[in-house]
Amino acid sequence: MSEHGHHPLPVSPVEQRVAALEALLTERGLVPEGFIEEITRRYESEIGPLNGAKVVARAWADPGYKERLLADGTVAIAELGFGGPEGDHMVVVENTPAVHNVIVCTLCSCYPWPVLGLPPSWYKDPPYRARMVREPRALLAEMGCPLPGDVEIRVWDSSAEVRYLVLPQRPPDTGGMTEAELAGLVTRDSMIGVARL
Amino acid sequence: MDGIHDLGGMQGFGAVAHSPAEPAFAGRWEAVARALMMLVSGAVDASGGEFRHSIERMDPGHYLTSSYYEHWLTGAATLAVEHGLVTRAELEARAGGRFPLSGPVLAPRVADAGPGVGEPRFGTGDRVRVRDWHPPGHTRCPGYVRGKAGTVVRVDGIHSVPDIEAHGTARRHEPTYSVSFDAADLWHDGQHGVTVHVDLWDSYLEPA
């Protein structure tokens, strides 16, 4: 081990700024005890793409549920116990052999937290936000999701209160699988629409 | 405002740094930044519009070279200073250096929100055109659809207009619509089979 390794990593400028604001707000009594830990726990363990995968699997397994999900996403998702901030007005868009849907937020990083968790870095970064509305076919291919030229692409820019979830196509040869097994096939990217299953 | 956050359609950014999975927070400071924004927003009773606008007002160079949670930190600190919870001098003294904040609000405070819209003016299938305007304050009307014509594909609920709520305590409520634009109409590049749907408040639109 090098001598360098005995020293802690230097605190970055942004960490120093976070610590400064945290300290000042704490002194003013504005940071309740345990609040930061609670936020961390909530976003690390309560929400995430496993919730969305359960919704998708249920829609694949139960045609009645799928119908309700496409008619009123918010209510149907609540049937499985999911909802809350950034999930109050859900619209589910269905992929078919002829239509591929993909979601983006060009103005910030709106994302359906209750079903997908917090957005990944690349979803929040400028390249994705700039390019997905301008050249989605090229960008999807670049991200490993090439689509035949005759597949219509529908991009959904989450610019108001609605948050979107893509219902991917059920993969072939999955007829005998249980709902839990189906959920295991569903990826975060397929529910954003940057991958097909 | 025509800010750096309005990224739809901008060119030159290169590849998306895709990763199949990542932790919710890359480090404790990200979770703290998130929590502090929530606490500041609550303490100053900031609307969603005011919260977003505090980030949109960041210096463009800083915005493009900082991460999502540095945006949240900058917005939280800006709101905290603007509402008198802390001072910039205190922040810089504690941080031991520069503490960049967002730029000033360019729009006047809204005293009179004007009448709301209770019934949708447009229905599914209607052709609409987005107002070609450049409001100095917060808006959720992306620049790349201004002046463009599209088709209403969905009528959503009645929601507080962000352009109003970001600039004071006045509120106006209007329907929002999902409007479908042919990508070839947006970019004039001859692409086929691509539609871009943007969710827009009633007052952003006029009949086409």
Give a structural overview:
The complex is a heterodimer of chains A (197) and B (208). Chain A is of the alpha/beta class. Chain A has 2 domains: 10-44, no CATH class; 48-192, Nitrile hydratase alpha /Thiocyanate hydrolase gamma (Nitrile Hydratase, Chain A, Alpha-Beta Complex), CATH 3.90.330.10. Chain A has 11 helices and 4 strands. Chain A has helices at residues 13-27, 35-46, 49-61, 63-71, 73-79, 113-116, 121-124, 126-131, 136-142, 179-183, 188-192, and strands at 90-94, 99-104, 152-157, 163-167. Chain A is globular. Mean pLDDT of chain A is 94; it is low at 1-5. Chain B folds into 2 domains: 1-102, Nitrile hydratase, beta subunit (Cyclin A, domain 1, Orthogonal Bundle); 127-207, SH3 type barrels (Roll), CATH 2.30.30. Chain B is α+β, with helices and mostly antiparallel strands and 208 residues long. In chain B, 30% of the residues lie in helices and 18% in strands. At the A-B interface, helix 1, helix 2, helix 7, helix 8 and helix 9 of A face helix 1, helix 4, helix 5, strand 2 and strand 3 of B. Strand 3 (152-157) of chain A pairs parallel with strand 4 of chain B.
